[in-house]
Amino acid sequence: MSKYDDGLVRCTANYQPMTPISYLERAARTYPDHTAVIHGNARSSYSQLWQDCCRLASSLVAHGVQRGDTVTVMLSNTPPMIHAHYGISLANGAVLHALNTRSDAATIAFQLDHAETKVIIVDREFSTVMAEALAMASVNPLVIDYDDLEYPDDAPHPKGAAIGSLDYAELLASGDPDFKGTMPADEWDAISLNYTSGTTGNPKGVVYHHRGAALMALNNVIHGEMGKHPVYLWTLPMFHCNGWSFSWTVAVQAGTHVCLRWVRAGAIYAAIADHGITHLCGAPIVMSTLLNAPEAEQRPLPHRVVFNTAAAPPPEAVLQSMAQAGFHVQHLYGLTETYGPTVVNEWHTDWDALPPAEQAAHKARQGVRYLSLSDLTVLDPESMQPVPADGETLGEVMFRGNVVMKGYLKNQTATAEAFAGGWFHSGDLGVIHADGYIQLKDRSKDIIISGGENISSIEVEDALYKHPAVAMCSVVAMPDPTWGERPCAFIELREGHDISEASIIEHCRSKLASYKCPARVVFDDLPKTSTGKIQKFVLRARAVELVETNE
């Protein structure tokens, strides 16, 4: 035994499990009167927010919630969603399951049964689809309605009928504001459950632990450049990877949550101007929404605003327009299995002196690992050996560290496959550059194999984005009798622009090798998820239909 182990034991005095729940408790003690939540005309201080979370926890316990029980919520970015990220865990160590609010009844029913849901809290905006799902599901949970008193008068649709046996406001009122909730006995304990998109079958349930959530909250403060009392606007759905863990991050620096039910340009600009927003997150479509907003909806930014974006790297023109508007865009990358983004395009100041084309090339890279991600690399998935750091050799991007999921709920086979060889296999194909920065080239399922040659859909999309008429695009494989597959491009045009398929293909020929150019170009609105990601599986089906229609 080493002298550094002899008599030096772990005990409650020198070791406590990490949990993001403690961040909110500290903020409430340190800044009790600071505004924690803004929702329409409603305001909550940090002491009130902590008490509401304790009320929720005590009420759930009173209704029989135990350790390991799943509490499902179907909520917009409203105060109860913030309560859920703390109060559910405080309820004897229950686990939060946040539903995608755009899910259909069958998907919801599958998740309720798979998660063995004990309690559901549902916003009345979604009560109709939830009622359909409950009729299909096998579980019989306690259902609690949330009737949002700040529901806008100009809402696109009215609230649905109440379907539960309890009202959320009454549930909170019955709770104990001084309830001593349960902190995790082990930081490996589950804190939340998030389901993948399930585009190739039933979705998989990704389980997060307290340690990962706590570390991600700190990571976001550091890599998101969040100083004391940031003001965070909820443009990113909190159901998506728990809002990339920003649901727990804001409390670290005693910031303010500004709730937003729907992503609308006018509401975003108004919030920035009226509340002094400092940070927001979203997919590239949120940037497009802001930049393409009517002049009447736009408001000048009172200060520099950090915009964290993930998915495909934004086109250079978009980055320039965002900078001119006063936004500082940070390019991130990650997956549901990694608590959201865990990779950042860490910018070097000396790159500012590079020619624009070289700057764009650097900005297109996904970047380097977050501080608490132990390792990030590109490996040959067969040999599990590193690919050369030459920026050209393709391999699979792999992760290792404390901000990787526990695994997939009740799916040992999928968990073992994901962690084969001691790494999390992302399914993303990429390269690693000499300086250690990784760059995605495609999802393994999105690579187009034409005549035996691999074509990166991202590379073709980059070329398309260089055309001034292209607002948004996506490239997928289209079956071809001669070449096996050829690229097919789907494009949303900028307002006021009109261009032919032939012109787009000619533009691509000036940027790409001929075999990489789209064989077909379709002008149409692109199908997107609730977080703004383009649904390539829908486009792949459309590409097949195009071929079948022409046969």
UniProtKB/TrEMBL annotation:
Keyword terms of this UniProt record:
Fatty acid metabolism, Ligase, Lipid metabolism
Q: Pinpoint the AMP-binding enzyme C-terminal domain residues.
A: 459-533
Q: Name one Pfam family in it.
A: AMP-binding_C
Gene3D superfamilies recorded = 3.30.300.30, N-terminal domain of ligase-like
Which residue range or ranges hold the AMP-dependent synthetase/ligase domain? 24-409
- Into which family does the record put it? Belongs to the ATP-dependent AMP-binding enzyme family.
* Entry EC number(s): 6.2.1.44
What is this enzyme's catalytic activity, as reactions? 3-(methylsulfanyl)propanoate + ATP + CoA = 3-(methylsulfanyl)propanoyl-CoA + AMP + diphosphate
* Keyword Endoplasmic reticulum recorded: no
Record-given protein name: 3-methylmercaptopropionyl-CoA ligase
Task: Give GO BP annotations, semicolon-separated.
Answer: fatty acid metabolic process
Enzyme class, spelled out? ligase
A GO molecular function term, named singly, is: ligase activity
- Entries under PROSITE patterns matching the protein: AMP_BINDING
InterPro entries for the chain:
AMP-bd_C (IPR025110), AMP-bd_C_sf (IPR045851), AMP-binding_CS (IPR020845), AMP-dep_synth/lig_dom (IPR000873), ANL_N_sf (IPR042099)
